[in-house]
Design a protein that fits this description.
The structure is a single chain. With 247 residues, the protein is α+β, with helices and mostly antiparallel strands. The chain contains five helices and twelve strands. The protein has a single domain (2-242), classed as Nucleoside Triphosphate Pyrophosphohydrolase (Alpha-Beta Complex). Helices cover 22% and strands 30% of the residues. The longest helix is centred in the middle third of the chain and has 19 residues, at 91-109. It is globular and about 55 Å long.
Length: 247
């Protein structure tokens, strides 16, 4: 754990200080077989942040994430977990983080976590949420769990305060074709068994969070009252603190 968590720290110190942006990522879990699998995407070689690395789909929070109508509310326990740690998170930001994970997963993989809705509400979704509107869906954050939080070390070319969410693949309501291709942000998607040999090019923090998720799943079904690891840079090292889960 220490070796993988410290790798990003060794890459610091090459760029001016930047305040981390709120971001979210989604770990989709396929439990249709005996060994659970998670979805990873390979980033394009020409992107600025983590080029060519295998990561979970995700990205920065956008303004529309706080305004988009949803099919079901965020679980109160999840919202409470999102408010823990420092920098502090406002309650309105918790909603944005959960919705950002869903939106980014759709934008980068074409997989939409949502629910069919009656009426014209979904049809009015545009811009970043267009794929949901076209499919008659509203995004549904009710199946999300918080797995980890991590802040990119100072000195990196991009800095994010990222919340790692997970959801079961059975929550996927729609798939948009043609999203992943040679010129896209993610050029390849792979479903990887949890206990398989790590992929070459797997980002260090992705590997660390996979380890945390594997331990959570080994203890039983995901629960909101499980402790959440918080990775952040302090005193020249990447620290792993624990945010107690909410019962």
């Amino acid at each position: 754990m220490r070796e993988t968590a410290e790798q990003p720290a060794r890459q610091a110190g090459r760029h001016p200080y930047r305040r981390p942006k709120d971001a979210a990522t989604l770990i989709l879990i396929d439990r249709s077989t005996a060994r659970p699998k998670v979805l990873l995407g390979k980033r394009h070689d020409n992107v600025v942040f983590m080029p060519g690395m295998f990561v979970f789909p995700g990205g920065s929070v956008e303004k529309t994430d706080n305004r988009v109508p949803i099919a079901a509310p965020i679980p109160k326990e999840l919202e409470t977990n999102l408010l823990k740690g420092s920098p502090k998170t406002h309650s309105s930001r918790a909603r944005s983080l959960a919705l950002a994970a869903i939106r980014e997963a759709c934008e980068e993989t074409g997989l939409c976590l949502g629910r069919k809705t009656e009426g014209a509400v979904a049809a009015k979704l545009t811009g970043a949420w267009q794929h949901f509107g076209d499919a008659g869906l509203l995004p549904d954050p009710s199946s999300l769990y918080l797995i980890a939080r991590a802040i990119t070390p100072p000195g990196c070319v991009r800095r994010f305060d990222t919340r790692f969410f997970s959801a079961d693949a059975s929550a996927i309501a729609h798939r948009v074709e043609g999203v992943v291709h040679a010129d896209a942000e993610l050029v390849e998607l792979v479903w990887v068994e949890m206990d398989a040999k790590p992929l070459a090019g797997l980002h260090a923090m992705t590997r660390s969070v996979l380890g945390e998720l594997e331990r959570r799943l080994a203890a039983g079904p995901l629960r909101h009252d499980a402790d959440v690891p918080f990775f952040h840079f302090c005193g020249g090292r990447m620290q792993r603190d624990i945010l107690p889960g909410t019962a």
